Amino acid sequence: MLSRREFLRISGLAGAATLAAACGTTATVETPSGPEPTAPVAAQPTAVPATKAPIPPTAVPEPTKEVARYAEAPQLAELVAQGKLEPIEERLPVTPCVCPVMERTGTYGGTIRRGFKGVSDGNGPAKMLSNFYVFYTHDLALRPDMAASWEVSADATEYIFHLREGMRWHDGSPFTSKDAMWWWEKRQNNKEITPNLSSNWVTGSKKTPMVQTAPDDYTVVIQFADPNPLFIYTVAMNEMWEPADYMTQWHTDTAEDKAKIDDEIKAKGLTTWVDLYVDKSSWRTNPDVPQIAAWYASNSLADELHVCKRNPYYWQVDEDGNQLPYCDELTHRLFETVDVFNMWILNGEIDYQGRHVELSNYTLFRSGEEKGGYLVHTANNDATQIMCINQTVKKPQLREFLGNANCRKAMSLAINREEIVELIYDGLTTPRQYSPSNASPQYYQKLSDAYIEYDPATANEMLDAEGYTERDAEGYRLYKDKSGPITFTLEDNSQPFADEMDMISKYLADVGIKMPIKIFERSLVEEHCAANDIDARFTLASRAALPLVDPAFFIGRAGDKSFGYAWTLWYNSPDNPNAEEPPEDGLAKQMWAIWDKIKVEPDTSKHTAMFHEILDLHYEYLPYIGISGEQPALIIMKKNLKNLPIDFHMPWSNPIQHDGFIPLQTFFWEE
Known about the structure:
By secondary structure, the chain is an alpha+beta fold. The chain has 24 helices and 26 strands. Helix 15 (405-413) packs antiparallel against helix 18 (456-465) and helix 23 (587-600) packs antiparallel against helix 24.
C-alpha cells in the first residue's frame, strides 16, 4: 500500500516550468539535428509596443549531436529495398521534429496493447494519436511539434506558425498550409458543418473571428482583432487542419461527383452531406482518411480490436536520427465490463494504460505486479472532488441559504475530510478545496487549505449567526420563514462516490442540514444542470495543473460543473429560457471581469497574479466545497516497456492528454 507520506512526496512535480515564454514576446525555434529545445524564458516588456510586427525568433541553438544519417524500422527498410517505399530521407521533412525521450533512445518492434469501451470511448485512443503545432516537454514547457517554430507579435494579436517542409500524411501526400486553410475555410467557416464558431477562434465582446492566411506552403498566419496571449495553449490541444485533397471529394462546394456523395449517404444510412463529411473526416469511422500521427488507424473504432499501424511517413525522430515510433502497432481491445479489463491487467494483457485504471483497485493491481509482469506507476492527478453548490436554485428559501457564503463555509467546516480520506481513499488523497494543483505554476495554498479543518462547533455558530437557529423535531434547521427544514439534494452519476456522499450527508446532518443523495445516469444529471434543475452536484473538477489553459470550472462557465447553473446558461446563451443574468457586483461577474482582463494582457508574467485575484474570490465566497484531491492516477506499464521512468510522476490533466502526455511513440520494448 502506498503510504500517505510517500504519496505526499511523489505528488509534487519539481520545477514545473512557466509557459509564459512561448506565448509572450518570443518564439521557439527548433534545430533539426539535435534535441528539441524548450521554450526560452524571456524578459517581458514594460509596455506593449504599438506595432503588430512579429518579434524576431530566437537564435537557433547549437545542435548537441550531429545526425549523420536517419534510421528506420526493419519492416520499412525492407519495403524500401523492394522498391515499394521511398528512402527514409525522402519520407522525412527537411527538419524532422526531434522528440525528446525520457530515458534513452530505443529499439524497433512489438505492439502496445490497450483496452477501450468502444466508439464512445474514442478519446482514449485519440490521446495516444495526438499531435499539434506545439506541445509540452515533460516539465510543462512548450516545445515545437508539427510546427518547426512559431512567432507571436508583441501585442499578442498575430501568430505565425512555420510548418515542417516536406511533412506528409500517412499515405505519402504532402502536408502543407493548404490543409490548414481547408480546415478553416471549408469546415470552420461553413455554416452547415459549423453553425457557430467555437470560442477558441474568436476574440473580444463582439466575438470577432480570427483571420487565417497562408503566404506560402509552409507558413500559417493567424490574426485576431483583440490581444489573445493565451491562444498558444489552444494550439497545443486542437488539431487545426484537415487533408484538403482527400476531403475535396466529400464537400459539396468542391466535389466533382455529387452522385458519389448521395450514394454514400444512402449506403451508410445517413441524412445529409454534412453527416457524411463528418464521418469521412474522422479516422474513428473512416480509416481511409489521411492521418498524421505515429500510427494510423487501419480499421474502424467500432471493431472489437482497433489496430493502428506504423506510419511510414511519420515526421519525428529521436536524437540519434531514428524515425519514430519504435513500436510497430498500437491496439485497443474492446471490453464491456471493468472486471474484464481488470482481469486483462492481472493476466499481463495490457501493456500501457491509465484510462479506466481505478485507484480503488490499487492494492489489487500492486499484488498482481509479479504475475502480470507490469509495474503500477503513479501520476499526479490534478482533480478534486467537489460539491457544486447551485446558487441559482429555483426554490427561493433554498437559494437564500445556498447563496450565503457563510453558510457554504459553515458546511465546509462541518465535513471531516481526514476521516473521508482514510476510510474511502486509504489515505491516498489530500484534504483540499478546488484550486490549482501543487504541480501548477498557479498553485495557491491560501485557497487549497481554506475552510478544510473539521470544526462542527464553529459551523454551528456560523449557521446560528446567519439566522438559521430554529429546528424541527428531528433536529434539522428551518428556513427563516419556517416553511420547512433546510433540505437540498446532492446528486451525481458515479456510483463509486455514493459512500463518500453518504458520509458528507451525515456530517451535514450533525449541524442541522438535511442533504439526501441521489445517483442518476450521467445524461440525466447533465439534463438537470442544463435546466437549472439541480441543487448541488458531487463531481470531480480537474484542469487544475494549467488552469490558464481552460479555466471554465474555476470561473463557472462549464455547463456541467458550476456554482450557478442559470448564470452559466446566461453567459453561454442569454436567450436560454433557464438563463439568468448574474448580479453586477456578484461573484460570477467579478470573476468574468478578471478573466476578460487576463485574456488580453500581453505581458504573460502578470497572468498568475491576476489569476490569483480570481482565487481570492474563491476564498471569499467559497463557490464550491472541495473535499479532497491530488490523488495519484494509476498507470499500468509492462516492466520491459521503456521510456516512462517509475520515479517520474507525470502531470495528469485534460489539456495535456492524461496518459498521452509522454509521447507514446517514444516507448520501446527492451529485450
